[in-house]
Design brief:
The chain has a single domain, classed as Nuclear Transport Factor 2, Chain: A (Roll). The chain has three helices and seven strands. Strands 1, 2, 3, 4, 5, 6 and 7 form a seven-stranded mixed sheet that branches. Helix 1 packs antiparallel against helix 2 and helix 2 crosses helix 3. The longest helix has 14 residues. The radius of gyration is 13 Å and the shape is globular. It starts with a helix and ends in a 5-residue tail after the last strand.
């Protein structure tokens, strides 16, 4: 198993990467080609669609950054952690928890949960 902290940090790095070519490189290195992502408001399959989802979130919340808020833990091929999304230096208005499944050290599935979402977001 890949170290849970490494998986979570690489995952957060992807969500914070604004450059499409660097994001593509992160996806190719750290995610399987058939990876899936699902949360209560979004679903994506494949690296290209996941990259487009990340770009859409960045466009919707300009200047916001993802941060880990709990120590990642895991067992077997699974990693879980919580995160926040907000502007630097301010309380994050959005929080969530994700469970990642890895295959051969690469992310193959993400199930996301939104724990705190402002009205109208």
């Amino acid at each position: 198993m890949t170290e849970p902290r490494t998986v979570a940090e690489d995952y957060i790095r992807l969500w914070n990467e604004p450059d499409p070519s660097r994001r593509k490189s992160l996806l190719q290195r750290g995610w399987t080609s058939d990876a899936t992502y699902i949360d209560p408001i979004a679903k994506a399959a494949g690296q290209e669609n996941i990259s487009a989802l990340v770009a859409g979130v960045q466009q919707r919340f300009p200047g916001f950054q993802f941060q880990l808020t709990t120590k990642p833990d895991g067992h077997g091929e699974h990693v879980r952690f919580s995160w926040s999304l907000g502007p630097a230096g301010a309380e994050a208005p959005i929080e969530g928890s994700d469970v990642i499944t890895t295959r051969e050290g690469r992310i193959c599935a993400v199930i996301g949960f939104l724990d705190k979402v402002p009205q109208g977001a």
